[in-house]
Amino acid sequence: MTDQRYLKRTIVKDSVVSQILPEGERDLRIFLPPGYNEVLSYPVLFCQDGEDFFNFGRVATIANQLILDEGMEPFIIVGVDVDKKKRTSEYAPDGERHDGYVTFFAEELLPYIESRYPVRREVQHRVLAGDSLGGTVSLHIALRYPNLFNRIISLSGAFYPASQEITAQSGRADYMSLFMIVGLQETAFETDTGTYNFVELNRAMKQLLEEKGASIQYGEHEGKHVWGFWQKHIPASLKAFFQAEV
């Protein structure tokens, strides 16, 4: 049974106005950690598919548990919602809305969060997280804005050929640190653009990034392309980047 302390979460609904996105704004959900104090400053986790990370990934509950019981340094979570009908267009690097979304993320969302919440401004205190295409767009945001983002949690990243080609043509990635997992049962996953072997895609991307100098914590585990698998590995992914230094 889940400890009731973990369920006492402070989650604020917010939205950021955008001059870039056609809709003119984007909904957010913000997790404020136990003991939150505006006088302090906090690392920040940005989650693509914000609604799913909170509802299916239970990222806020897991963060509470790690902060309260395992001594993890408190951090803020920014869940960035997405319209599922436009998700592929925004998250896939060859999608028609992709460039706009990446620009919005770095040039509108990040400044908004920094103006409203006491998050740290140093690049090492920002982490991007995403599942499937959310992992893909997180990587491409970091490739486009290496001075702003260099830490990535990728849960079964959808690293299709277009993504691998862009990565292959990019420069060094020795500034980048990634936590990557993929499920061993993800060898024939059907998507709206075809059927893919996610194990092979992730192995290929891992090799590409390592050749460019990236630091990668990589794992292949029993699991399918579903939140039930990813949720189990969220604690380890958070520990990879937010574990307090002894």
TrEMBL record:
InterPro entries: AB_hydrolase_fold, Esterase-like, Mycobacterial_A85_antigen. Keywords: Hydrolase. One of its GO terms (molecular function) is hydrolase activity. Signal peptide: none annotated. The keyword Hydrolase applies. This is Alpha/beta hydrolase. It comes from Paenibacillus mendelii. The lineage of its organism: Bacteria, Bacillati, Bacillota, Bacilli, Bacillales.
